[in-house]
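Its record is quoted verbatim for completeness.
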Amino acid sequence: MTKILVPPARLGVMGSGQLGRMFAQEAIRMGYQVSVYSPERNSPASLVGAVETVAPYEDENSLQTFLKSIDALTFEFENIPGAELNLISEYSQKNSLPVFPSPECIRIAQHRIREKTLFSKLGLPTVPFYPITDKAEATKAAETSKFPAVLKTSSFGYDGKGQTKFKSKEEFRAWVGSLGQEPLDLILEEWYEFDKEGSVILARDQKGNILCFSPSENIHKNHILDTTIHPGNFSDPIKKQMIESAKILAEGIDYVGVFGLEFFIKGDKIVLNEFAPRPHNSGHFSQDGANISQFQLQLRCLTGLPLPSELSSQPSSMKNILGQDYLPESALWAKYLSDERYTLHLYGKSDPRQDRKMGHWNFVGDGAEKAF
């Protein structure tokens, strides 16, 4: 039987950035207490009332103390070191601490080889990929892969970081020739010329009930999500394939919580790109354009509260505000703020660096695809 945690239970979050902030806003509004763990002081989550534990993720003593202080744990950040994921898993089992999603799901999502291998095992379509853990595998990949192809770090890559495109077999062979005998943790993926990018936001509760928002279309600039349009302009068969793939993944790993699953779409075919084991940037439209936000869904999956009977949404769009676009005094911001169809969400960050996510705009209403 699912145990329901009611306010004022203390909910823990690994990570304290904007996703933790928006989760905390939902939880605190309902009377829950929230504690966050990260190396960052005065983090976005702490500015809305979450209690901070400021320590490295590798600090096992601080992590143990944090786990003892909370009633359940979730994640807003997947790049937790493996040893600490093991510690969380062991503590959870020994002390019956609810941890959703499971550390094993986090372990899969944080490593591209494990992730792509899982997709293939579940029969989900991916681009051809080649694990590269040493020079011998790199040499084999050079002969097997089609080019162009993208070489990626298996871990800690996001927003296009840790990626190198090789246009030809000869170019890749030259790179292989420069290698020594050191161990590697890379993956080579064949280049895929897609028509569109999209994503599905899925919630699965502790009883196995699943809800999905209709797929959204995503537009990236310089490898960073720029705009999400909801619902996406996809054919019904494509939407069905995307949602079915998300459900197969969730059930295949007994996932509990919210995730975002990214796709490449070409013609009448889909290919899975990656999944994020937490609320996803492309799901922010749900804060203003749906009957429930992805953060409220995350909260309900964690605490055992029931999911709604269905998800409904209006035509919506979301635009990220990066450091270079952080212009509060601009005429454009004044225009948006004077229009009730636009809602501003800022993350409390003080340093608007290039490409840093400072906030986002949501638009709800007709013409959402042209709002930004």
Q: What stands out?
A: The domain at 128-190 is CATH 3.30.1490.20 (Dna Ligase; domain 1).
